[in-house]
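Homework-ish question, so no full write-ups if that breaks the rules, but can someone show me the predicted structure for this set?
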Amino acid sequence: MLSDVMEDYLKAIYQLQRETDDRIKTSEIAEELDVTSPTVTSMLDKLEDRELVDREKYRGVTLTDEGETVALEIVRHHRLLEAYLTEHLDYDWSEVHAEADRLEHHISEDFEARVADALGEPEVDPHGSPIPSADLEPPTRPEGKSIAEFEEGTVVTVAEVADRDPEVLSYLAEHGVEPGVELEIIEIAPFGMVTARSSEADDPVSLPESVASHVWVAAPAEPEA
Amino acid sequence: MLSDVMEDYLKAIYQLQRETDDRIKTSEIAEELDVTSPTVTSMLDKLEDRELVDREKYRGVTLTDEGETVALEIVRHHRLLEAYLTEHLDYDWSEVHAEADRLEHHISEDFEARVADALGEPEVDPHGSPIPSADLEPPTRPEGKSIAEFEEGTVVTVAEVADRDPEVLSYLAEHGVEPGVELEIIEIAPFGMVTARSSEADDPVSLPESVASHVWVAAPAEPEA
DNA sequence: TGCCGAGTTTAGACGGGTCTAACCCTAAAG
DNA sequence: CTTTAGGGTTAGACCCGTCTAAACTCGGCA
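A: Not a homework solution, just the prediction itself:
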């Protein structure tokens, strides 16, 4: 049996791996989980003993297949919960993350199945993030780009908003930046700030690079304009 | 902040207190929580430090008002969850206990409020047990008797089935013993076994004293027959 | 090639929750 | 009033997850 904390580490490594595609360093995990580096090192020892991570001392870790499966299970729980809370308990898009973070470790397989069923086996959560399937096969990374990578003047459709900060999410929602909306990229400043107009809002919104890079657009099936 | 484990102890003490109305002894708590006596003693030290229990060494504990409030909060969570799982996620009456036991420590005030709202502020859970109100005032103990305390031939209405064992609950449900049904007491054997016929089942059912004592009947408002 | 700094790991401590073994108190029986 | 059995508490150990302080490694730069 794995502890909640171990699950958190595996999930963190998984998510960092999705972002960087490289070995994950101690300090990155420490940052992500808000603990010190030695704490991470000792946990990595334990995860290595259980063959949940591959490790090279001083050079970071990657998940083993088994570790990845565990991480996917937790991510599935998390995203199903987010979807359920918004659909059936009237939570706002921006509020669900913290609640799901606490609950994700404590639901049974049975609960997971019932929630998935109640939602009709959804494929994405309210932020547009893909929900791992019940078989926990590693999803192929969907192609996609952040809105910061487009030319000024382009109109794109938001697929995913990968931020977790509720304040940021509220702000984005207020300014019409949510999965599904169309965004016209108005300006990309030299320091990375993106200004865009949403189909759902009157005024344009400006987002610093750190936020804009979390707003993703699905790679279009090359609509031969 | 209280740990999950502390909450479990407070809840256990609360529930034992409902049953026995006396100081609760170390060994009773140990039994309830499936832990050894020294473990309970050391936990009681901590709860006493925090003024959540009143203690007399060698003679057991009672909850302080503050301890009772915490216990009521947990019980409220538990019973709301049980109600929600049966009403909205299609759980069976007999299955909800374990799931609620895990979740009860991890839901926010907000979640609690939304669940209560979705259910319409229910007053009892699926087992007929009263759900503490949101203000966490200690409920006055409802009058009531177990079916073992009636004369043979009496017809009673089941108000609460206070067992927690899913196997026992399944068995009872199969034989028509659930909150709301009418039960005709057919026989009370000298060793305490109760045989009764449910309005919801064809054949009578016999219950050993240990089970029968958990099947409660609300004290009727003395219907002057 | 050798040094240096950033980042990682080791060493050692601590609080939480649990255990077993040993000791001690309480209350009931004589 | 004394004994004793049963149960409660103390003592001491262990694992978990965390920390700080100190030692070490890697890789870039002189």
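Now go work out the reasoning yourself. Hint: Residues 25-27, 37-38, 40-42, 57-59 of chain A lie near DNA strand C (CB under 10 Å from a C1').
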